[in-house]
Amino acid sequence: MTNLLLELQRLDSSVDELRARRSGLPERALLRESEAAIVALVNERAEAADRRLTLARAERHAASLVNDLEARTREVETTLYSGKVKAIRELEALQLELQECQRRQGQREDEELVVMEQQEQLDGEIAAMDARRERLGIQAAELRAVIKAAESQIDAEIGYLVAQRSALHLPPAVLAVYEKLRSVPRLGGKVAVSVTGGACGGCKMILPTILTSRLHRAPLDKAVQCLHCQRILVS
Predict the structure, then answer these.
(1) pTM of this structure
(2) Of 192, 200, 209, which is closest to residue 228 (Cα–Cα)?
(3) pLDDT by residue (tens digit) across 127-175?
(4) N or C: fewer beta carbons within 10 Å in the chain?
(5) Residue 110: which of 76, 77, 118 has the closest Cα?
């Protein structure tokens, strides 16, 4: 039973190490970073799209004002130069209105140009975001593929060890004690230890002579445990 118990512990320790390696694959952290970056980028892209819509509305409004002023300017020019208006005051008033329309039209055109430049800049930013989103998506897909391959390999190794474990046949009573101790965090999975020089191989405490003597005479279906740390003692 001694060799079987230590072999069981060796297999279980190897499985624990493989599972820890599986959950701690460095690509997982990189994937989480990529996915977080994608989420942040999606939100940033949505905000930029909202700003783009706002600028588009502003550009349409500015263009509408420019068109209205152009129409009024043409109307005033037509009246002014038609020859139908003879009164000096009326002509002066038309000239002043024409100048004012031209001035306001120039202002609106400048405002429209500023909005169009902002749109162009924002379009470039959105395009850069889309390109980065695509790169991050490719990176995330590659990381998932690496993780999947590593998981498959580790799972195969775990399956091989579990099959070896299943082939071991220990007394149910001893196995029950072993499994219970395996769940005790402070033991760190090391629950079956050899006795060396009269001391427990786990806690290193000296064992009573009567206990070490009992170890050699104990039935195969009974676990002998350290009085200090409760680990199973094997000779």
Answers:
(1) 0.73
(2) 200
(3) 999 999 999 999 999 999 999 999 999 999 999 999 999 999 899 999 9
(4) C
(5) 118
